[in-house]
Design a protein that fits this description.
The protein is α+β, with helices and mostly antiparallel strands and about 190 residues long. The protein is built from four helices and six strands; from the N terminus they run H-E-E-E-E-H-E-E-H-H.
Length: about 190
């Protein structure tokens, strides 16, 4: 019985940690006014009719703090890459010179920075909700096992352990959000 409960709790802890990993992946996509290849993460390009991640069709780098360059492995794929970037609606315009694609990242306005800060907060709130949902499931599992004969004091210790995970990971989410907001709001 204890092994089953421990396995369930480890699974819940893993879900909590996955929420933080997801938050970090999503926040990488939030523009901070600096060029970053991560901005293009998740863009799918039609590569010979097959949707393929852009980083598997091209070499992506930053020429300077405001310019991203995309060098396709196959030059005939330039129009497809350009189209995928347009459709991704990143707020940037790709420039195709026949050899590579350049993306100039315009500086962010104060209004746009405030909008991005709200996006960051919303992503953080989603992560916190995921953590709380995993906590709720863990607590329900503990209560169910106590009802089925698991020692009550051991159940209380397990609940405290789960609450500790929740508090630690929620604090980590706050730190991540605060850091990203500061990055977004810095001119």
């Amino acid at each position: 019985m204890e092994d089953l409960l421990s396995d369930q709790l480890e699974e819940n802890k893993m879900l909590m940690e996955e929420a933080i990993e997801h938050l970090e992946r999503e926040l990488v996509k939030v523009r901070t006014g600096k060029a970053s290849p991560a901005m293009l993460h998740g863009i799918m390009v039609s590569y010979y009719g097959v949707p393929t991640p852009i980083n598997q069709t091209s070499s992506i780098s930053t020429a300077d703090s405001r310019t991203i360059t995309i060098q396709p492995f196959d030059k005939s794929n330039l129009p497809n890459i350009e189209k995928a970037i347009f459709e991704a609606n990143l707020g940037v315009t790709p420039q195709n010179d026949g050899q590579l694609i350049r993306i100039n990242v315009p500086p962010l306005t104060t209004e746009r920075r405030q909008q991005l800060a709200k996006v960051v907060k919303a992503e953080g709130e989603e992560a916190k909700i995921s953590i709380r949902n995993a906590r709720r499931d863990a607590m329900e599992n503990i209560k169910k096992e106590v009802k089925n004969g698991y020692p009550e004091d051991a159940g209380k210790r397990m609940e405290e352990k789960v609450q500790g995970w929740t508090d630690t990971l929620s604090k980590k989410v706050e730190e991540i959000i605060e850091h990203k907001e500061k990055e977004v709001m810095t001119m």
